[in-house]
Protein 1
Amino acid sequence: MKPVSFRYFAPRSVDEAIDLLAEHGEEGKILAGGQSLVPAMNFRLARPASLIDINRIDALDYVREDGGQLRIGALARHARFETPVARGVLAAFLPRVARHIGHLPIRCRGTFCGSIAHADPASEWCLVATTLNAELAIMSRRGRRNVRPNEYFAGALTTTLQPDELLAEIRLGLLDDSWRTGFAEFSRRAGDYALAMAAAVLRLEDGRIVDARLGVGGAADRPSRIAAAEALLTGSDGGPDIVREAGNIAAEAIEPLEDIHASTVYRRDLVRAMVRRALNQALTR
Amino acid sequence: MSEKQDVTFTVNGDKRTIRVEPRRSLADALREDCGLTGTHLGCEHGVCGACTVLVDDQPVRSCLMFAVQADGARVRTVEGLAAGGKLHPLQQAFWDHHGLQCGFCTPGFLMLAAGILERDPNIAEPELREALSANLCRCTGYQNILKSVLAAAFEMRR
Ligand SMILES: Cc1cc2nc3c(=O)[nH]c(=O)nc-3n(C[C@H](O)[C@H](O)[C@H](O)COP(=O)(O)OP(=O)(O)OC[C@H]3O[C@@H](n4cnc5c(N)ncnc54)[C@H](O)[C@@H]3O)c2cc1C
Ligand code: FES
Ligand code: FES
């Protein structure tokens, strides 16, 4: 189908974009990669009266290291993360995740920040942001604010981002060589949305886990950290029994979605398996 | 209806200016305003890949881009592949290896494959298989498409 008519704006600067958002935000929308918004518009599920296209704002097109953080601008597209964008551990981790997002033509347009703004439960970047406790830098005419994922994701396709706000930048803390990472995802076909996925980020010292971050996505209405499993892992040697138990804890901790793709029972089983795979990956490299 | 806008871009090397509503997709602009009906539309929501074209050398779904976004861009479609009456190696390989049956998905696969091979002329079979999974074909069962692209990649490296 074809979208309904809309007014189109293509600002060249962040200031201009923010002014347009202040003016049109309530009935308007930002157009980033368009890989989620345009399908919704073509189905007429979304009928924005105005589109504010940020694709011509060069100042938003960056990924850079700064002050121990990886800063990701609103125009950084998924494909950029297929090759290492950072030093250290994130360098290997992000490409492994990026390759699971849709397909190459989707990745050539879609953006990291667009995924966070859209907040699909099966978004890989939403899981990464949650697991790494990313800082989300938000701007509007009213000012700037920074939020963390736990005060941002509010449910499926729902966030605390206001209609006049631009998600300008995502900041991920860089990880030094004492950290290990793992990522596992299950989907029915290559490139499909995940039915369940897990990300494990562990810090090891003398063969012991001294810090553990374990995130699960795709299975519930939003990504989440599994605090009880993190507590079990921390201080342990990450042996087979611990890994198995962490999977069990995660499977019980989530409130699984139930839809035509998978039942709650099946999703819990997938979470159990994905958590174990992600942990084993982190522990064996 | 909202104001029409001028869009100037190059399509297969030719500079064109068209006048379109902002809601006009790049796919529709190519088909309706430029008369280039080689770009096909299957699903119009990004899933099938029949509409794949190259925009500034990147393979993209032209059903998910508005024509106004392509202002100033360099667009390549299936009509631009053959040169001087000679088929592009990808087209020749699809012919030789039965990479098409009904042909509906073919323009999208050809442009996807062109984009993939420009990014990585030496792409290995497993990665190519994964990359080609971006597009849907209801006829061939994909094996011959894979075979065709591998053959073309070999030919293009020679
Ligand atoms: C066939 C297909 C398969 C896909 N598979 C996957 C997958 O496996 N995993 C996955 O995660 N995604 C997948 N996607 C979605 C894709 O990753 C999108 O790129 C992403 O969800 C949204 O990013 P975008 O830049 O395209 O945003 P858009 O579609 O442009 O925007 C999405 C929403 O976010 C808002 N928005 C965008 N950027 C900002 C900003 N900076 N500030 C404020 N609001 C903003 C828009 O107003 C809109 O409401 C798939 C898409 C397709 C078509
Ligand atoms: S028509 Fe564009 S992806 Fe199907
Ligand atoms: S050849 Fe018929 S859909 Fe691919």
Note: Residues 58-172 of chain A form a domain with the Uridine Diphospho-n-acetylenolpyruvylglucosamine Reductase; domain 3 fold (CATH 3.30.465.10).
Protein 2
Amino acid sequence: MKIKFYLNKKEIEIEVDPTIRLIDLLREKLNLTGTKEGCSIGECGACTVIVDGKAINSCLMLAYQVDGCNVITIEGISEDGKLHPLQENFLKTGAIQCGFCTPGMIMSAYALLLENPNPTEEEIKDAIAGNLCRCTGYKQIIDAIEVSAKELKG
Amino acid sequence: MINLNCKIETPKNIDELLKLLAVENFNSKILAGGTDLIVGKIQGSKRFVDTELLIDINKIEELHKIDLIDDKIIIGASTTFSEIENNKIINEHLPLLKKAVSKIGSLQIRNRATIAGNFVNNAPCADSVPPLLVYNAELELISFGNKRTISLENFLEAPYKTQLQKSELVSKIIIPVPDKNIIGDFYKLGRRRAVAISRITLAVLCRIENNSFDDIRIASGAVTPIGKRFYEIENFTREKRINNDLLINLSQMLGEEILKITGLRWSSAYKLPVVQQMFYQLLNNIVIKK
Ligand code: FES
Ligand code: FES
């Protein structure tokens, strides 16, 4: 099946097997290995990417379903080799230890800030409730998102 | 790389879809949000082992919208939980449904999972069911050359069993706009606050006139084998004057009724007092707010 979609702001056209998942297309066909696979059943959020402005689990979507969509992965949020404020602040506040949850966390946070540039702590918690972190204890992650929201507003 | 190992079709309209569903000797399943089906298929769940064909309905816009037509709210089968949660019509008229869907899974799940997908396999823990039952929801079922309407309550036959025929599709959920004076609440208890499968859900809608229950509708989920209305308690309650004794009495009745349905289980000693307390608090909050 031939599909056409925007991936990190570039339009691509590709032939996909309709029975593979979006995460497999990203990691194995397109070599975008920033997106991680943890549980494969929609529980951990490590595979979170953004499709048409919404955070989704790429382990629960089929690759062909992004036909005509706008997809953003962790590789697509830095610009001209400069890290996105969320990435900078995750590093600064100690929101990263092993880093396995980080791409998914950042994509959930990115989707939140797209919709709501001024989130409360509760809203942040709700946005990352589907992202598990076994290392940091979440406090630092929430801090990183709060600081980024302030910076992005200028 | 994981492969779903079956054929996939993506019909562009209802006609194409119904023709695909009508093919007799093909074991097909509808694919909408996929949050249950894709996991089930990958994990080799019994429910999907013989599925040879997935019919993806995401391209069919008719099934994916919320409308207010005359005095009915019509929710397309493949509308996602996030869309329901953020919809103006739902916010205004169906606050219990909004509350219930906003507590399902995680945001990533709610952005994909669909309303019909929540109840179409009749799992007892489907959170949308108790609110839909108290709102007297009906379903439109369509098949090639045929259309019928059935109440959600009759549709949900037995645990993991519904009235849906092989060639049929749930196309719409139809809910009469509730009277302006109807108030109510929904409560969900899971093992943790977010991303949890429900252990107990309760929905209550009522209309209070002159300090008595003019109308009341009560439904449970997860704690009963299927989502269920409690007509006997509802009838008992109608016209009764509201006081603390009545609320305590009703909570006891609900506990007894649930025990009758489920029989005594190892978990009863834990769940029953919780159900009764939850129900009491729900009623009390509603009465106080009024
Ligand atoms: S890998 Fe997708 S949610 Fe865990
Ligand atoms: S940093 Fe290790 S899982 Fe989050």
Note: The longest strand of chain B covers residues 198-209.
